[in-house]
Amino acid sequence: QSVLTQPPSVSAAPGQKVTISCSGSNSNIGNNYVSWYQKLPGTAPKLLIYDNNKRPSGIPDRFSGSKSGTSATLGITGLQTGDEADYYCGTWDSSLSAWVFGGGTKLTVL
Amino acid sequence: QVQLVESGGGVVQPGGSLRLSCAASGFTFSRFGMHWVRQAPGKGLEWVALVWYDGSHKHNADSVKGRFTISRDNFQNTLYLQMNSLRVEDTAVYYCAKDLTNTWHALDYWGQGTLVTVSS
Fold first, then answer.
1. Cβ pairs bridging A and B (under 8 Å)
2. At residue B89, what are phi and psi to the nearest 5 degrees?
3. How far is Cα A92 from Cα A38, in angstroms, rounded to an integer?
4. Residue-wise pLDDT tens for chain A (110 aa)?
5. Residue A31 gets which letter from DSSP?
6. Contact with chain B for residue A24, Cβ under 8 A
7. Long-range contact list for B41-47, CB < 8 A, 24+ apart?
8. Most distant CA atoms of chain A, gap in Å
9. What's the gap in Å between the CA of B97 and the closest CA on chain A?
10. How far is A21 from chain B (nearest CA, A)?
11. Could you tell me how far CA B46 lies from the centroid of its own chain?
12. pLDDT at A2
């Protein structure tokens, strides 16, 4: 059971938009920065969003992040088949003194 | 460019030990916190441990407390994970990752991982 809760799967058609939620508590999302990661099979995780809504250099603006209270959301617009991957949210948990990840969400582009 | 290269994975029997290494280059290693993260077959990402930029503070996941020790050598630009009393459930790909800052904002660069298999 992950400290951060994500839906197991989401799906949408190419060109459409999808959102992935990440729910936590005051000890993690509520008082710390959220980041998002893309994980393709057999490859290293890739940072997509940091500090709730900032994109590292090279990440297209089709990817966006937001945070409200103890929840965060990753948005992906203009879906491409290459976006099919597992997506994870992550943050620091001040009560646990530990980094925590969500359980991951599998994105299917139909 | 930032490079993180893990090594030391392999097959080990339950109760055995293994030491993973992560060679870092392309950034000032001594200025950043570092993490180990693992992914068991068919499972999600699981954070394992982190160490401050200077090695002065360390934090571990409860699942590895008392068995795994993270450390670093800032002269050799290398991160380590000493794994003792290994269990079947420790089987996973282990990744080292660089922290964006020293205040745990994000993990911005990752290595390609090294596979640890615990099996009799």
1. 67
2. -70, -5
3. 18
4. 789 999 999 999 999 999 999 999 999 999 999 999 999 988 999 999 999 999 999 999 999 999 999 999 999 999 999 999 999 999 999 999 999 999 999 999 98
5. G
6. no
7. B41/B91, B41/B92, B43/B92, B44/A2, B44/A86, B44/A88, B44/A101, B44/A102, B44/A103, B44/A104, B45/A37, B45/A39, B45/A45, B45/A88, B45/A90, B45/A101, B45/A104, B46/A101, B46/B92, B47/A90, B47/A98, B47/A99, B47/A100, B47/A101
8. 40
9. 9
10. 16
11. 11
12. 87
Q: Which residues in chain B come in under a pLDDT of 70?
A: none
Amino acid letter at B117? T
For B100, which of A50, A88, A101 is closest by C-beta distance?
A50
As a whole number of angstroms, the distance between CA A107 and CA A18 comes to 9
**Would you state the structure tokens that stand for residue B28, as one six-digit string?**
């000032």
Paired strand residues for B115:
B93
- B48 touches B37 (CB < 8 A): yes
CA B70 distance to own-chain centroid: 7
Residues of A in contact with B22 (CB under 8 A): none
Joined tokens for residue A92: 């620091």
